[in-house]
Amino acid sequence: MQHQTNRTTPLALIGLLIAAIATVGCAPEQPPQPAMSFEETLQEQLITAKPGDVIEIPAGVHEMTRSLSLNVAGVTIRGAGMDSTVLSFKNQAQGAEGLLVNADDFVIEDIALEDTVGDALKINQSSNVTIRNVRTEWTGGPLTSNGAYGIYPVQSNNILIDGAVAIGASDAGIYVGQSSQIIVRNSRAEYNVAGIEIENSTYADVHDNTATNNTGGILVFDLPNLPVQGGRNTRVFNNDISGNNTANFAPAGNIVATVPAGTGLMVLANDSIEVFGNRFVENQTASILVVSYLVTGLPLDDPNYDPYPEAIHIHGNRFEGGGNNPDFAPLTALQAATGKPIPDVVWGGTIQPASAGQPRQAVDQIICLGDSTTTLLNLDAINGFAAPSLDAAAHRCSLPPLEEIVLSHSAQND
Questions:
Q1: CB of 317 closer than 8 Å to CB of 277
Q2: What's the CATH code of the domain at 157?
Q3: Residues whose CB is less than 8 angstroms from the CB of residue 329 and which lie 6 or more positions away in sequence, other chains included
Q4: Which 3-state string (H, E, C) describes 104-154?
């Protein structure tokens, strides 16, 4: 009698072997990874961006807790509008800037950056930069604790700032420093210490802007002890510069802490500046100040620095009121003594002395007012403000017009 034996076919054995292997090799399920936050997603987009990328940021208030950065050339950051897409840094815990960019051929447009710990939008060592319809703001009003700069390109060239809004900076709302080939146009700066500032830069056009309710509306400065010096060739024209009477709230020690409240336009130690077609309204220290760095009273230990302004051409501007409540001791004394408003243009009166075979600087090489009726006050700072003068006869001269700035990147005409 034959015994029946259970037999497994080769095919069945293979199936059992596969099942066993699968059972042994099956790892326990991993918990799902949390989705990246909007902030993390945006920073990853900035890090992994490639030239030609457009990073779209949708409408809404997007909370940021740390600085953002971009180091890739040829990238565009685009929001849905400066009042629709907001990056809020109110709870920023890491970093100083809101967005730090070191990249050529960069465009940022239609977006706002609010309440950064430090500078809102800093662009460093970049070429061909377009900043269009961008708002930077500290929403708590003009406070010393606000960040220093709103829109802040530095050591860069071919810069277009168009349709920007800057509010509440404790230094300058729209600032371009140590740069060349610059256009700032169609923009608004208010409740900053300096509304718009061009510093240690060359070849700039600042036009068709509104500077209002700042400490100083527009500043054109050249300062010592910086890598780039010799600021010159800036045109300031067709701007509305009104009511810049906000008390100075810059941190102590900052150069802009010396700017008197009530200053419309201030030119400090810069050369070849043309100021025309502007409207100055109710700036209570003076519509225009032109001064040497020496007037600030700050120490000067840079042997390569030229502290004297030269070739300042002021013509064809409109002056309405102002000069009735100056925030600068020599002007306060004069206004109290005369009972009259401060003249349209105030010149410090410091003249470069003769040296190394060079003759003493002539006053008509410093400021020219054309043949207009613009009034001028010489503060006689060179003699300790001893004998201020209202005689503008030597300044009824003209200088050749400066050339229009034409940027090399196509965004200028967009």
A1: yes
A2: 2.160.20
A3: none
A4: CCEEEEEEEEECCCCCCEEEECCEEEEEEEEEEECCCCCCCCCCCEEEEEE
- Quote the pTM value: 0.90
Instruction: Please determine, for residue 18, whether its predicted confidence score (pLDDT) is greater than 60.
Output: no
26-62 pLDDT tens trace? 555 666 656 788 999 999 999 999 999 999 999 999 9
User: pLDDT band for position 382 (50/70/90)?
Assistant: confident
All residues at 6 or more sequence positions from 368 whose CB lies less than 8 Å from its CB, including other chains: 311, 312, 313, 314, 315, 395, 396, 397, 398, 399
Give the Cα separation of 171 and 173 in Å (integer).
7
The residue range of the domain holding 227 is 56-413
Residue 183 inside a domain? The answer is: yes
Q: Is residue 250 part of a domain?
A: yes
Query: What's the structural domain count of the chain?
Result: 1
- Comparing CA positions, the residue from 108, 51, 63 lying closest to residue 89 is 63
Contact in structure between 213 and 191 (CB atoms under 8 Å): yes
